[in-house]
Amino acid sequence: MNNDNLIARAVMTRYATFCGTLMGLFWLAKFTLIPLGFFMPMLMFIFLGLSICVPFIAYAMARNFRNRYRGGVMSFGEAWIFLFLTFLYASLLTAMGYFIYFRFIDGGFILNSMDELVNEFVATLPQMQREQMGTQMRELINAQRSLSPITIALEQMSQNLMLGAIMALIIAPFVKKSPQQGNL
């Protein structure tokens, strides 16, 4: 491997780390809307809207990297690796934030709030559905209560990383640009 390839990989890793840190901070800021959304339901819609923005932000970061450091040329594989690394670093940072939140701050607030919402929802159902749906929902919430903060953090990290890998596959073709495309 020649020196130019090593430098290019180091630059990609450094910029992906920077972008992943920014994306992770964005995800953590977005996550704060979930507990606040139990007090102000409109914040849950803002959370969903911001979640929809994630692929567009990742595309902008990858395009910026391509134009700034790659001379406007980037292969599909390079784009995918850059995006995957960005999502990897964002997932790691977010997992640390989740651990801190569920270990030291939450105290069962989210699950207790969800339990209250389930009870309100189940009360509106017809009698036949009420028992079955209520039992299933409570079992799900109780299963979540049994998880430790580190388990929740690692579970969320793996989900974010898997979704990030899939999003990277979808976004990379849009970031890819060959030298012939750049001359048109």
Overview of the structural elements:
This protein is mainly alpha-helical and 184 residues long. The chain has one domain (3-106, 150-183). The chain is 86% helix and 0% strand. The chain has eight helices and no strands. It has helices spanning 3-31, 33-37, 42-69, 76-105, 109-123, 127-145, 149-175, 179-183. Helix 3 (42-69) packs across helix 7 (149-175). The longest helix is centred in the middle third of the chain and has 30 residues, at 76-105. The protein is elongated.
Overall 3D shape: elongated
Number of DSSP-assigned strands: 0
Would you list the SSEs in sequence order as H and E?
HHHHHHHH
Cα(first) to Cα(last) distance is 31 Å
Q: Sheet bearing the most strands, described?
A: none
- Amount of beta strand: under 5%
The value of Rg in angstroms is 21 Å
Unreliable segments (pLDDT under 50, ≥5 consecutive)?
none
Counted up, domains total 1
Which structural category fits the helices and strands?
Answer: mainly alpha
Number of helices: 8
Portion of residues in helices? Answer: over 70%
